[in-house]
Specification:
This protein is an alpha+beta fold. It has one domain. It is about 55% helix and about 15% strand. The chain contains 4 helices and 4 strands. The longest helix has 21 residues. It is globular. The two termini are about 25 Å apart.
């Protein structure tokens, strides 16, 4: 990774109003790819690891708090938010 992109972040605002700072190089990460492959293979237990790997502990908590209903961070809401995050990250450079 070049020095220029090493600490660059991108602000992403989700439909629910939550704004997150994501490392610009997040999608060029082999460990994230391996975690996403686990999800693709049907391992739903990898979801929390994907969230934490991409967002870090503090932002993971913010995401969980943002989707919390009746004291619970719903799995479906977290998955939907992660899909939105990944979609927005994939839009980088598209016009």
């Amino acid at each position: 990774m070049s020095e220029q992109n090493k600490n660059a972040t991108r602000e992403i605002t989700l439909d629910n109003g939550l704004t997150l700072s994501i490392d610009e190089g997040a999608m060029d990460d082999m460990e994230l790819l391996e975690l996403l492959a686990q999800l693709d293979d049907g391992n739903g237990y990898a979801i929390p690891r994907v969230v934490e790997h991409l967002l870090g502990k503090e932002q993971k908590k913010k995401l969980y708090d943002a989707v919390r209903v009746n004291g619970r961070a719903k799995v479906t809401a977290v998955v939907d938010a992660m899909k939105e995050i990944l979609d927005k990250l994939g839009e980088t450079g598209k016009n």
